[in-house]
Amino acid sequence: MSGHSHPSCKIGPSILCADLSCLADECRRMMQSGADYLHLDVMDGHFVPNLTFGHPIVKCLRPKMPDVYFDMHMMVQNPEKWVESMADAGANQYTFHAEACEDIPTLCRKIQESGMRVGVGLKPGTPVETILPYSDLFDVVLIMTVEPGFGGQSFMEDMMSKVQYLRTNFPYLDIEVDGGVGPSTIDVCAEAGANMIVSGTAITGASDPSQVIALLRNSVENAIQKSQLER
Asked: For residue 215, what is the enclosing H or E element?
């Protein structure tokens, strides 16, 4: 798995939880509140029972925020179908689901060749062992802490064993968590070794998003510092 520097803390608000009628303004508000990147959920109504937006939205957002890192969470069947159009729209990271892909190595290469970082997502029921044979092909592993496709579920703390396993075996990997992550659950995520934190309503619905982002960051940075001292 890529990279040989210790992963840094990155906080990515999930834009699906924001007011979609003024999406660009909401994205700007998140970045001004201290976010490191934006997490954009693409759902196709097949892989998950919900429908959101696709590459045309990304293409419209890109010129309005030229320097923002777009992390595309592709909750879609046939994720190989959308690689070129997402790259063309200006996406930076393409996170597909292992469960939706029959040929993981080919898809990873396709994403890399298109100039995006490669992310692979695991649903709660999927063991981490599924992706280990391809571990050198990913930049990011996304551990879902709820079932993808539905909002408002409660955080599954037992998913932290996957995060711990990955952090122990791949110390330089970017490990992302998504689902029910907020002030009350951040410490267990941070202690398990997650460094990319996706948070939805906890940030977008807060009266002061910058305060929530700072709290999440503080927890993760403290955990990173502590683990480096223990080494």
From this structure: helix 209-230
